[in-house]
Amino acid sequence: MGFRPRGLLLDMDGVLYHGSRLLPHARRFLEATAHLPRVFVTNNPIRTPVEVADHLAALGLPRSDPADVLTSGVATARWLARERPGFRFFAVGADGLHRVLAEHGTEDAENAEFVVVGEGPGLDYDTLSRGIDLIRNGATLVSTNPDPSVDAVVAGRHRVLPGGGALVAPFEVATGLRATTIGKPEPLLFVMALERLGLSAAECVMVGDRPDTDIAGAARVGLRCALVRTGRFLPGASWPAGEPPPDWDVPDLRSLLLRWWRDGVLEQR
Amino acid sequence: MGFRPRGLLLDMDGVLYHGSRLLPHARRFLEATAHLPRVFVTNNPIRTPVEVADHLAALGLPRSDPADVLTSGVATARWLARERPGFRFFAVGADGLHRVLAEHGTEDAENAEFVVVGEGPGLDYDTLSRGIDLIRNGATLVSTNPDPSVDAVVAGRHRVLPGGGALVAPFEVATGLRATTIGKPEPLLFVMALERLGLSAAECVMVGDRPDTDIAGAARVGLRCALVRTGRFLPGASWPAGEPPPDWDVPDLRSLLLRWWRDGVLEQR
Question: Is there a single domain that holds both residue A131 and residue A208?
């Protein structure tokens, strides 16, 4: 018998939805895999898990348990709590990032042990200067996610917004130090998702839309992975040289279901 | 007869002053070299030439002609005017940068042909996102200066502030493009200073305090150069591997005068 996954890791933006637009077949895919425990993993630290669960429900998808949502913000907060219980932090990013971090640590712009930079509004000359000061005084620079840019839909128009990798760059350049990075393709987000599932990498599949983060990162921790070309990486685009190819490379979630049913990866129910 | 310079290029911060503190021997050095035409060159685009001349005078130095002050902001404005007369720009930086650019071009956040990023306050999530948009629509990314960080004295305390290289980094990461850089060690600021003097590189000396920008850049365009260790690079620090050594490496301007008098580079008056 071939491979049968016991759990799924699912990226969301570009896989299940685009901004506020549900992608075709997302509901069907979630229903057809409902018997498999799953974790929704995202490099986007802007929303809290509850907000993500609300967003999925608002799009018409089955309501998810917020505990099954692992954002890079949550993973960062958990990692910092493990590294230093009761940690003090200075965050540069969206409100959601501040709130998620504050569940495990204390915001302290004077004596922070960690400068956490994440996606969303928050960076300006003052926060940058303050962060540089703290890092020079010994704080560790942490980046929620390394994406250079992110796609967004703002007022009905496609926008390219700065990603976590862009927002942390000025801190890195000014201090000459590299940030500790939590999100995909770094291993930590995947490892924490597997912990939540209680499964090994060999037992699970990661479904994502980005070769550089989803697929490269999943392959690095030994996960099988499926690429759907409904997000950043479009049908017809040639595979980036040097990146490991995915186990499945399909136009969309419907094609993935058909392939999995055909090959016995998934039993048709 | 040995080398006798016909003109000088002088960095200011770390050479003549530190923030609002005049450095010893600066006045003496300017007096002893008063017969040589000179250009004050600085990577700092925050002040306008008039403001720089005022600052030098306020420190007790001889009043300089603002036309002899070449900031990276002025050099950027002149370069853009040559590239595209009447250029439209979107600037991210201090007020002084906006004003200097507006002397040659027109600020236009909707249809800018150049996104100019310079030192000082100005960067935030909105300006970054707007700049990314403009660059994606064809605007050229320009950086006034590449310094990763700059030393400053704020409220009597030494601070390390983000430099032009740090502030342009998020634009570069988000777009995947490299900025055109005007300031030291790139050649343009030096070349424009030599144009102002009407002299060749072989006839002039650059005096600066930073191996990575002042000395490396001066050597690249064929200038002789003198390093004073009164700024970022302190006495006892070992020369960075791979950087060309300066022609003179002295603790301060007094030592430079003594060396130049002794070796006949400068006639004692």
Answer: no
Same domain, A223 and A166: no
Query: Chain A closest CA to B207's CA: distance in Å?
Result: 24
State whether A97 and A166 are in the same domain: yes
Contact A162 B128 (CB under 8 A): yes
Find out whether A143 and A179 touch, Cβ atoms under 8 Å.
Answer: yes
- Tell me if B149 is assigned to some domain: yes
**pLDDT tens column, B49-93:** 999 999 999 999 998 999 999 999 999 999 999 999 999 999 999
pLDDT of B25 = 96
Contacts of B148 in chain A (CB under 8 A): 173-174, 176
**Parts of chain A with a pLDDT under 50:** none
Instruction: Give the domain extent around A176.
Output: 74-181
Residue A85 region, left (φ>0) first, then alpha (ψ -120 to 50), else beta? beta
The CA-atom distances, in angstroms, between B65 and each of A168, A171, B51, B54 are: 41, 37, 11, 10
The mean predicted confidence, pLDDT, of chain B is: 95
My answer on whether B81 and B175 are in the same domain is: yes
Range B138-163 average pLDDT? 91
Choose between B269 and A54: higher pLDDT. Answer: A54
Place of tokens 């130090």: A177
In terms of DSSP bridges, do strands A38-42 and A7-10 run parallel, antiparallel, or are they unpaired? parallel
Domain count, chain B: 2
Chain A residues inside the 8 Å CB shell of B121: 124-126
Global ipTM: 0.91
In chain A, the residue whose alpha carbon lies closest to the alpha carbon of B94 is A125
Q: In sequence order, which residues have a C-beta less than 8 Å from that of residue B11 and are 6 or more positions away?
A: B40, B41, B42, B206, B207, B208, B209, B210, B214
- Please indicate, yes or no, if residue B49 is contained in any of the structural domains: no
Chain A neighbors of B124, CB-CB under 8 A: 121, 123-125
Q: Which two tokens stand for residue B247?
A: 């022609």
Taking an 8 Å cut-off on Cβ atoms, the answer to whether A170 and B172 are in contact is: no
In a mutational test of the B interface, the residue from A117, A124, A125 whose CB has the highest number of chain B CBs within 10 Å is A125
Cα dihedral angle (A119, A122, A124, A128), rounded to 10 degrees? -70
- B155 and B193 belong to one structural domain: no
pLDDT in the model for residue B1: 55
The answer to whether A13 is a known catalytic residue is yes
Q: Cβ separation of A170 and B169 shorter than 8 Å?
A: yes
Of B131, B147, B181, which residue constitutes the final position of a domain? B181
- Cα separation, B84 vs A208, whole angstroms: 44
Do residues B177 and B199 both lie within one domain? Answer: no
User: In terms of domains, do B90 and B175 share one?
Assistant: yes
How many Cβ atoms from other residues are within 10 Å of residue B236's Cβ?
A: 7
pLDDT grade, residue B158 (50/70/90)? confident
Q: Do A132 and B165 touch (CB under 8 A)?
A: no
Q: Catalytic annotation on B11?
A: yes
Please check whether residue A146 touches B, CB under 8 A.
no
Domain match, A81 and A117 both: yes
What pLDDT sits at residue A1?
A: 55
